[in-house]
Specification:
Structural class: alpha+beta
Number of helices: 3
CATH architecture: 2-Layer Sandwich
Order of helices and strands: HHHEEEE
Strand content: 35-45%
Low-confidence stretches: 1-10
Radius of gyration: 13 Å
Distance between the termini: 24 Å
Shape: globular
Strand order of the largest sheet: 1-2-3-4
């Protein structure tokens, strides 16, 4: 049980990581900060990716492989 609690506590979804994101970053740079996304969808040339862990969530939208919009909920 301790291992499960330890692993669930390991995440890059925190305010410090989110603060490192910036418009214009490419997908590889974002994944270097947040890790692989939980889910991505592409629609009309816009790639939208979500990273989530429990109540924490980061959303990043890319156009032509670069961040255009990003937001977060539940970060500490």
């Amino acid at each position: 049980m301790r291992t499960a609690l330890f692993l669930s506590g390991c995440t890059h979804l925190n305010q410090s990581s989110f603060d490192r994101l910036d418009a214009g970053m490419n997908i590889e740079e974002v994944e270097g900060i947040l890790g692989k996304p939980s889910n991505c969808d592409e629609d009309f040339g816009r790639l939208s990716c979500i990273w989530n862990s429990g109540e924490r969530e980061v959303k990043v939208d890319y156009v032509q492989g670069k961040i255009v919009v990003f937001s977060a909920e539940g970060l500490q």
